[in-house]
Design goal:
By secondary structure, the protein is an all-alpha fold. It has one domain. The protein has three helices and no strands. The radius of gyration is 11 Å and the shape is globular. The chain starts with a helix and ends in a 13-residue tail after the last helix. 13% of the residues are buried.
């Protein structure tokens, strides 16, 4: 596991309640993010700077522009 993976994992634990959504919901959210104009090449959201591949997995998280 690289440093970036470790940071993503820690962010998922620190900034969420730890309850994950069903895998299909996470995949749907990620598809929405990947087609969004606010997704940066780094994989971060331009609006909230989250790692979208992690944020989309958690039940208590929301899209900052209301797409999911």
């Amino acid at each position: 596991m690289g440093l970036l993976d470790t940071v993503k994992e820690l962010a998922g634990k620190i900034f969420t309640n730890g309850i994950k959504v069903e895998p299909e919901i996470a995949r749907k959210r990620l598809r929405i993010c990947k087609s969004c104009k606010f997704l940066l090449r780094t994989g971060n959201c331009k609006k909230c700077l989250c790692f979208v591949d992690e944020k989309t997995k958690y039940k208590d998280q929301r899209c900052p522009v209301g797409k999911w």
